[in-house]
Hints:
Pfam families: UDG
Strand content: 15-25%
Shape: globular
Number of strands: 7
CATH class: Alpha Beta
Protein name: Uracil-DNA glycosylase-like domain-containing protein
Number of domains: 1
Number of helices: 6
Structural class: alpha/beta
Radius of gyration: 16 Å
Distance between the termini: 63 Å
Helix content: 25-40%
InterPro entries: Hypoxan-DNA_Glyclase, Uracil-DNA_glycosylase-like, Uracil-DNA_glycosylase-like_sf
Oligomer: single chain
CATH architecture: 3-Layer(aba) Sandwich
Order of helices and strands: EEHHHEEEHEHEH
Amino acid sequence: MEYTHVKHTFLPVYNEESRILILGSFPSVKSRENQFYYGHPQNRFWKVIAGIFKEPLPQTIDEKKDLLLRHRIAVWDVIDSCDIVGSSDSSIRNVVPNDMDLILSNAKIQGIFANGGKAHQLFVKYCHKEGMPPLGKLPSTSPANAAWNLERLTEEWKTAFETYLEITEQEKTFEKRRNDNG
Length: 182
């Protein structure tokens, strides 16, 4: 097992309208090569997000960012740097966490969701503070999570997001009315 000290090298995806923050643990080797989130072709993250919103599967980084931002979703990772063997979450050590205030103070995040148990565990250990939005743990979209097929994953994620998505729809309706009357 060859440990490598690795730093996260690409920015979080969010804007001031983001309501849901999805956190991974740390980018896989493929994601680091691609310089973007969930870059391994077997990871089901993009299929799940596209499925929730009944949208085509995004292909480019710009299409992926657009899909997230249109649906008020922010994406980041818990870890800024660590020692890791390949892409193995179980090998992670010497963690330097990301500063969640970057997103939480610049967006209207109402719910934080960890993509899998390791991201949840690391967030609770290194990042969670009193007064943060509620934290949920979602089943991992990693191909290693073979117990969950795509349909079941998508349904579970959609159910977890529903409260936040309803709030977003109500806000959009209110905003439209305000602009129409304005």
